[in-house]
## 1
Amino acid sequence: MYEHLVVFRFNEQFDKGQEQALLQALLALKKQIPGIIDLTAGVNVTEEQENVHGYTLGLRVTFENQEALRAYGPHPAHQKFVSMLDGILENVVVVDYPI
C-alpha cells in the first residue's frame, strides 16, 4: 500500500467560501478513483500555530499499491479537482511513501 499526503496553501485570491467546495471535491475522489482504500481530508485546526505556515487544507489517501497511486494523478476526477485550484493555489506539499 502507499500513503499520499498533501497540504495546500492558498493565495490572497482564495475566498474562504471556496474551502467547503474544495473539501467536498476531495472527499468525493474516494468513490470516483479506483485503487483508493481510504481517503480523509479536512481543514487544518492545529493548535500549533507556529507550524501552520499558511497551510490550511490537508489530504491523506491510502492506495492499494504504487500503480494505483500513479494512476490517480492523471485520472479525470483528480484533474477536475486540480482545475479548481487555478488562480488560488500558492503552494502545495506532497509526500508519498509505502506502508
## 2
Amino acid sequence: MKYVSTRGNAPVLDFEQVTLAGLASDGGLYLPESWPSFTTEQIAALKGASYVDTAVAVMTPFVGDSLTAEDLRALCTQAYGRFAHGAVTPLVQLDHQHWLLELFHGPTLAFKDVALQLLGLLFERFLSGSERHIIVVGATSGDTGSAAIDALAGRAGVDIFMLHPKGRVSDVQRRQMTTVLAPNVHNIALEDASFDDAQALVKAMFNDPSFSSRFALSAVNSINWARLMAQVVYYFYAAVRLGAPERPVAFAVPTGNFGDVFAGYVAAKMGLPVAKLIVATNVNDILHRALSEGDYSQGVVVPTPSPSMDIQVSSNFERLLFDLGGRDGAALSGQMLGFEATRAMRLTNAQRDGASALFTSDRIDLDEMSLAMRWACEHAGEVIDPHTAIGLAAARRASLPADVPVVTLATAHPAKFREPVERATGVRPTLPARIGDLFDREERYASLPGTFEAVTAYIAERAVAK
C-alpha cells in the first residue's frame, strides 16, 4: 500500500513513512493510492469477532509490508487492553431505531483514544532500534491533546508539544493534558486564540522550511493517516452487530474537523453498506454549509459547550474533496490555496454530487443540544455529553427508512462536560474512579501569545534537533 498527497506534489510513501511524516511536504494530506475492497463474505466473517480481530482484518490492507499480521495484532492487543470495557466500543440501544456507539472507554474518556493509543505504539515501534527522534506538534480543541499525551508520555524517541486555546477547553480536558508531568510532554496554552488559530500554527510549522528542516516533525492530529485508519475499525465493528452486510446501517457523527466522519466514508469505500453518514455540527457550521449549499467559507468561531467542535476550518474535508474530485492533486491544490488566501470556497458540481450520495448534514443549536441530552436521559436512561447530543439530535431529525439502524457516535464521557450536562439533565456525572483524583493533581503548562514566532521559539528551545 502506497500513499499519495491530496495536493499531488509530495513523495509517495509507505505506511511507516506516512505515519511518521504526518502532513505531506506540499501542504496536503496523505491518502491511500487506492481503496482496499472487502467482499460481503469478508464483512460477514467479522460477525462475532473481537475488537482486536476486527481491527487486524480492517487495517491489514493499509499497513502493507510495514508490519506483519502478528505485529499488528500484538500492537492492537496492547492498545485496546487499556480500555475499561471488554467490547472496547460497545453499542447501547436507545429505542427501536437509534443506538449509541460508546467510544469513550479509553484512558482519557474520548474517542481519540481509539486511534491514539495505537498511534503511540506505532511511533515507538517504527523508531525503535534507530537514532531517530521525532517532534510531535499538535493542536487540540480538547480531546486530541489529552489522548495524544497519554499515548506518548514517557515513550522513547518522541517529544510532544500540544497547543490548546486558553480558556476554550473544559477543566477536565485541560487537566488531562496539563497534569501529565512526563519530561517529553510540553503543553502550550495559546492566549486569545481559537482552535483554528492553533491548527493554523501547526500547519505553518510543517510548511516553514527554516523551522521544519531543523526538526523531524510529525503529527497526531487527524491529518495523520494512521489515526483515521484506526477509526475505520469501529464502523465495521458496529455495523456487523446490527446486521451488515445483509442490511445497511446509518451513522450520525458529531464533528468539527471531519476526521471521524471521513473514517466512515473510508469504510463505505471499502464495501461496508453505509446507508448514510449524518454530519452533525454545532453553530460553527462550515461543514453543514459546505455539504448542504456548497459554501465552504470560514466564519468566526463561536465558543460553545461542545468545544471539540468549535472549528471553522475542517482539515480532513480536503481528503473528501480530493477523492470526490477525481483525485486531481493539481486542481485540489489550486482550490485549497484559493481558500487559504480568501477563506472562502465553492465546492465543484462533482464534489457536491459525490458528497450528496452518502452524506447529509445538520446544524444543531444550544437548545436542540440540551433537548437531546434531556431526551436520552429521560427516555433511555443514558447521560450523554454535549457533542454526542449534537449527533443524536441530528440522527433523530434525519429522514431514514424505519428499518435502517441509526448509530450515533458517542464521542466523549459526560463527566468531561459536567456543567452543561447538569444544566440539561439535572444529573452531575462523576469521573470514573481511574481518574477520580484529576483535580488534585499538579498542573504544568506554558501560556504563550498565539504567534508563530513565540510558539516556534518555545519549541526550538526544548526540542531535539535532527
## 3
Amino acid sequence: MCKHILNAQVAIRAPCCKLWYDCAECHAAAQTHPLAKAAEMVFLCKKCKKAFRKDMSVYEESDEYCPHCDNHYVLDAKTPQAVVKLEGEDLRVDARMVKDDRVKEVSRPAMFLESDDDFADRLG
C-alpha cells in the first residue's frame, strides 16, 4: 500500500534495482540511489495481478488501460490530506470525551394559572 498516492492502480518496477514500488516517492524512501529513467516501463496491475510493459516513447491514450483486465490505471492521484479529528473510541459506545453544549431546559411552574380562583388565592 502506497502512503503517498491513495488510489494507486499499478506498481512500477524500478529499472535501477529491479524492485516493485507503488510510486517514485516510495522508491526514494526505501533506497539510497535515485530512480533511474527508462524508455520502457514494467507495470503490475493491482486488479488482476498481471505484469505488462509499456514503451513510454510512444505512449498513447489507449495505453492508460491494463491490457489484461482493462483496468484504467492512469487516474488523478489522491494524496493524503492532514485532518484534525478526535481519536478515541466510537462515540456511539463511549461519548465521555465529547462535551455536550446543549443546555438542559429547566421546567418552572407557571406564575399565572388558567383558573381565576387559584389566582385569587395566591394574591390573598
